[in-house]
Design goal:
CATH architecture of one domain: Sandwich
Number of helices: 5
CATH superfamily of one domain: Immunoglobulins
Largest sheet: 4 strands, antiparallel
Low-confidence stretches: 1-10, 19-32
Shape: rod-shaped
Amino acid sequence: MLLPVRVKLKKQISNMNNTNTGDLSGSDALNSNPGNNKKTTILSVVIVLLSILLAGLVYIHLNQKSEMVEMEEVLTAEKDSLVNELSGLMYQYDTLKTNNDSLNIEIGVQQGRIQGLLNVQASNAQKIRLYKKELRTLRNVMKSYIRQIDSLNTRNVELVAENKSVKSQLKDVKDTNEELSKIKEELGSKVELASVLQAKNILSVPINSKGKEKFKISKIEKIRICFSLRENPITEPGEKEVFLRIIRPDDIVLSSSFENLFEYSDKQLVYSAKRMVEYMNQDIDMCIYWTNNGMLIPGNYSVELYLDGYIIGNSSFSLN
């Protein structure tokens, strides 16, 4: 802006010098012409004014250049500060990652905005102001995310506590149910045992053909086992089958057939004889007979009575 003024000023001075030289030569010519003196004075004033103007313009130019340098330094500092803040904000957003997919997507969108600001060169104060405004918005959004995450974390802690409580309650219920089942099973076993009929007053007598008691093997025709089924109010009434086992001194069971079997404790046992009886929850007397088939030997015999898979009584006798 100053260069054209300087050129124009030089041209005017050169023209004026040429004019003065052509019209008069030497100092005598100037002194002899009053008009020329006036022009010279005016020219001197113009030169002085132009010099002052030039000096002012130079000062203004230098001052503006200094201000522009200062402004550029300020803008550069603000831009660097803005970059640092955006980078820090990006890191803070990284720390906000959660298990919530929707929230993570929103956080990713905001990080994209931050990256976009980092990629744009802020070249003037207006852009920097806009970016600072955007930075404030991003910070406010981040604060809202922090509140949401804190709320989610608090709820997660509550849910974990509730889950532990529910699991504890379920365990207590399970333990209670197992205990109740055990008690029920025990009570069931006790009731089942209590419902088992028992035989009392068991009397084992070997008899001859006339029904008289004989202990000599050669005279024995039958062995009579008499007993009473006890009264039991919790036993289911109805037809009952009683099995008799007579066991010789050598542990062989007296039986008419090895196919005479019944079940006891998951095993098949040989029985000597059996009898059906109608039980009505009251004491009932009954007898079972075994017919001698030549298997008798001298010694001590054991007698066992079974009903519904349980042994209900036993006794013994001896033969000679």
